Amino acid sequence: MDNILDGKATASYFDEEMLTRIAKLKEKDITPGLAVIMVGDNSASEIYVRNKKRRAEKLGFNFEEILLLDSISESELLSEIDKLNNRDDIDGFIVQLPLPKHINEDTIVNAVNPAKDVDGFAPYNVGKLYMNDPQQVPATAKGIMLLLEKYKIDVDGKNVVIVGRSNIVGRPVASLMLNAHATVTITHSHTKNLSEVTRQADILIVAIGRSEFITADFVKDGAVVVDVGMNRVDGKLTGDVKFDEVSPKASLITPVPGGVGPMTITGLMYQTIQIAERRANAKG
Ligand code: NAP
Using a 6 Å CB cutoff, which residues line ligand 1? Predict the structure, then answer.
């Protein structure tokens, strides 16, 4: 199939580029530092963290996993965040969500120093993205833009339809697309006649979390289709797009797995390096 937007191969391509940048940083005695705080046991989060760790170590990052008990209090977690905010060797960190119910996620997200908020969740970074001056943005959104860039897909003037309006995917992708001069439509569960809207898309980005929901009749001939979905069905990973039906209509399409997933980790690593480069520049 020659219409695949290959996230795995593109991630390897960006790994090479990032290794060159990391080598330059190391000449200045700087190693990109990334930390992940994980509270309690959560098997889904553990898989994500394992994947991040593997890639970070492959790239030669200083990677730290901070595992905390479910019973940790909000103030103890805030003091862990404070330590990372103040450590020079940590460029960026993530507090893996969801958190236990007794901890207020907004309070925690707000406590992360925006300069180290590598996943772009802090309101400051959300605002910067909205104002077309992005610093760090959510990793999946960054990864999608890098994937399209690698395939030289020009979004300027294109009709981009996004299905899903979450803070971690739909909204940041919409802002990045708008910043890149696309004509953007955001759809969600209240959208009327969804398939009529999605059929207008030159580029269709789907992030809803419903296995194989987008069938051929949602897609215009020749559209570029980006499937963010990751659903577990009978032990198998499926996307939000019915690949076998949609692929023959699409000019390019991401598979699941091997599409957006690897690029999300690329987005995270890429932004950690950008922060480390700012540290290097500040050092002179
Ligand atoms: P989310 O927070 O649950 O948001 C889902 C969005 O889809 C909501 O805006 C919802 O609309 C909309 N939606 C649900 N059913 C719909 C329908 N029938 N028609 C139209 N819109 C509908 O999900 P998320 O966190 O963005 O994740 C979406 C999917 O992407 C999940 O499968 C997740 O696992 C996957 N994901 C993958 C990666 C990756 O690296 N590949 C990263 C992040 C997420 P309302 O707002 O109206 O409720």
Answer: 140, 163-166, 168-170, 187-191, 194, 207-210, 228-231, 260-261, 264
Quick one: pLDDT at residue 141? 98
Catalytic: 96? yes
Q: Are residues 189 and 232 in the same domain?
A: yes
How far is 142 from 176, CA to CA, in rounded Å? 8
**Cα pseudo-dihedral 68, 237, 248, 260, rounded to 10:** 10
Mean pLDDT score of the chain: 97
State yes or no: is 220 an active-site residue.
no
Q: What is the mean pLDDT of residues 205-209?
A: 98
Q: Is the dihedral of CA 48, 49, 53, 59 positive or negative?
A: positive
Over residues 217-249, the pLDDT tens digits come to 999 999 999 999 999 999 999 999 999 999 999
User: Which domain range does residue 205 map to?
Assistant: 139-261
Task: Specify the number of domains making up the chain.
Answer: 2
Contact between residue 91 and residue 116 where contact means Cβ atoms under 8 Å apart: yes
User: Residue 204: which CATH number?
Assistant: 3.40.50.720
pLDDT at 256: 98
- Please, are residues 189 and 212 in contact by the beta-carbon 8 Å criterion? no
Mark whether 104 and 150 lie in a shared domain: no
Q: Are 166 and 245 members of one domain?
A: yes
Q: Are strands 183-187 and 159-163 parallel, antiparallel or unpaired?
A: parallel
- Of all residues in the chain, what percent carry a pLDDT higher than 70? 100
On whether the CB atoms of residues 265 and 236 are closer than 8 A, the answer is no
What is the average pLDDT across 3-21? 98
